[in-house]
Structures are given as structure tokens and as C-alpha cells.
Design goal:
It is a single chain. It is built from eight helices and 18 strands. With about 300 residues, it is of the alpha/beta class. The longest helix is centred in the first third of the chain and has 20 residues. Strand 8 and strand 9 form a beta hairpin. The strands form five sheets. The chain has a seven-stranded mixed beta sheet with strand order 1-18-2-4-5-8-9.
Length: about 300
């Protein structure tokens, strides 16, 4: 009896893929409901600003994130809510709370199988995301010229946008504060009649949203923009490295992108500026984010913990 090697090979591949697929959907898909995941200590640093050109009444949130804190919408919300609850005594009428850039990036894994968060590497996590949405992924994969990450972000854009906007709108309304909600990577967004929407075109963009103390979107921050801190001060925001030439040296500037480096690129730029940098910090799979923030042009060394830096 002769074996058809081609059919045998195809059958073997099919069997292996089937076993992988089945194994992914069997077992623990939900994260443990353990308060220790989100209820962590918060270190508070208070910096007094005496110079008139320096900003005041602003709080930079520097959480140290791990991938399990993105496992569900509830856990992500409770992590940030716990931090703000500890800061309530410091909130004033015109306080602005600024979350770090890229904090919304990892919402791509939220409300997915917990096996994604248990993956040993970022590459394995991406593979699982593809496995759970194979046909939608392939459609976007070809559109993005075979870029795996961009294709996955297009697949999950609506979910990411919903989780991001709902979380920060809810927090700003609950604590009656203005919040600059970190950055997110999703389809382009726009504001219409105090509501947020996604454009239908499959065009990805990194942006941040400023929410009012009523939980309403004030503006979408892209590339370069200014936000009002109080009647006397405004803060320039640089989201894109290519926008550095737009900086007004007489006004404080926030470098709002993890691609900047506090030890190299920014240390030179900040010599002639009043600058701020609140990088995303954490340990996600095999990726470590350990940049130090810059406050009033000075590097602030932080340990692997959750911090709030209060400027008044």
C-alpha cells in the first residue's frame, strides 16, 4: 500500500493546527478577580513651582503597568481609579491630571482570552490575537502591506477606542477633574456635538483626548497642540518627533511620546526649555519600559512603583 505523501503532509498540518486551535479555546479564558492586581501602593511626589513660567496645579500619573492589568475593562479601570482615589485630597477646581503616553496601546489585549496575557513573549501574544480573528486579520494584513501589528490594531480599533474613551470619560466625571488620557493607537477619531466617533477609513493614528470635568471630550491632541492649564498658563504638547521645530521656547512643553528618551534626546533639548516628559512605564511580557520622567527640565529617578507627581 502506497502512501500519498502530499495528502499525508496536508493532513498532518491540518491536525496540528486543529490541536493548537482547540487548545487555545480550552482552559482559563478569564483573569482572576484578585484585588492585588490593581490595588497597589502609590508614592506621591510634590514639587513647588515658584517661577511664573512654570505650570501649576497639574498632576502627572506614573503608574507601573503589567500586562495583567489590561486583562479586562474592569481591572484596567480599577487600577486607574485606585490611583485617583488616593489623590482626591489634592484635586482642585482647575486640576489637570495627565496620564502617560501609550497607556492605551495595550487595550488591544483587553477582553480577550486570558491566555494572551499569560503568553511568555509579545510575539506569542500577537500570534494568539491572530488566531482568534484569522479572517479579519488577513483582510487587514493585505491592506497594511503585510504589517502584522497595524493589521491587528485595525481589527481591534473599535474595541480599543470604546475601552479607552469610556474609561477616561468615566474617571474625569467621577472625580470632577480634567484628564489628558494618555495616548492610544486606533483609527482616526473626531468630536461631534460633544460625542466621540471613529472615521470609517482604515487609517491608524496615535492621539490623545482631553476630557473635561464633566466627562466630555474637549479636544483630540495630534502631533502638536496646546492645552490651557489655567487662566495664565498653557502647555505645549509634542506628540510627534517631527514637530519639534514648532516649539515656542517661552512656553513649557510636554514631550508626549515614549519614543523620546529622557537620558539622550531630551536631556539636550531641555537645557533651553521648561520641559516635561511622563513616559509610559511597566513590564509587559518581555518588554520593559523604564524611562525616567522629566519635571521642570530635571530627570526624576523613579523605582518600579506607581507614582503621582504633583506640581503646585
Amino acid at each position: 500500500m502506497q502512501i500519498n505523501h502530499r495528502k499525508f503532509f496536508i493532513f498532518t498540518i491540518f491536525l496540528v493546527l486543529s490541536l493548537i486551535f482547540i487548545s487555545e479555546f480550552i482552559g482559563n479564558k478569564k483573569p482572576p478577580n484578585n484585588p492585588s492586581i490593581w490595588n497597589e501602593p502609590l508614592d506621591i511626589l510634590i514639587i513647588k513651582n515658584k517661577k511664573p513660567q512654570n505650570i501649576k496645579n497639574i498632576i502627572f500619573i506614573e503608574p507601573f503597568m503589567n500586562i495583567f492589568q489590561y486583562a479586562s475593562e474592569e481591572i484596567f479601570y480599577k487600577k486607574l481609579d485606585t490611583i485617583l482615589k488616593n489623590l482626591q485630597p489634592y484635586f482642585r477646581k482647575d486640576t489637570i491630571v495627565i496620564f502617560p503616553p501609550q497607556i492605551g496601546y495595550w487595550l488591544i489585549t483587553t477582553e480577550e482570552s486570558f491566555k494572551i496575557h499569560l503568553s511568555k513573549t509579545y510575539r506569542n501574544a500577537l500570534f494568539r490575537l491572530i488566531l482568534y480573528n484569522p479572517f479579519s486579520f488577513l483582510n487587514h494584513f493585505f491592506y497594511t502591506n503585510f504589517n502584522i501589528e497595524k493589521a491587528l490594531y485595525l481589527v481591534h480599533s473599535e474595541k480599543i477606542f470604546k475601552l479607552y474613551t469610556q474609561t477616561f470619560a468615566k474617571l474625569s466625571k467621577k472625580y470632577n477633574i480634567n484628564i489628558l488620557a494618555g495616548t492610544v493607537f486606533s483609527r482616526r477619531a473626531y468630536i461631534k456635538e460633544n460625542l466621540l466617533f471613529l472615521h470609517s477609513e482604515p487609517q491608524l493614528e496615535e492621539y490623545s483626548i482631553l476630557f473635561s470635568d464633566k466627562g466630555l471630550p474637549i479636544k483630540i491632541i495630534r502631533d502638536y497642540d496646546n492645552i490651557t492649564i489655567n487662566q495664565n498658563n498653557s502647555l505645549q504638547i509634542i506628540l510627534n518627533n517631527n514637530q519639534i521645530q514648532k516649539i515656542n521656547k517661552n512656553k513649557p512643553v510636554l514631550f508626549y511620546n515614549n519614543s523620546f528618551s529622557s537620558e539622550n534626546q531630551l536631556s539636550d533639548l531641555c537645557k533651553n526649555l521648561t520641559c516635561y516628559f511622563n513616559p509610559f512605564r511597566g513590564n509587559l511580557w518581555n518588554i520593559k519600559f523604564e524611562e525616567f520622567p522629566i519635571i521642570n527640565s530635571q530627570i526624576i529617578p523613579l523605582k518600579k512603583a506607581n507614582y503621582a507627581i504633583i506640581i503646585n
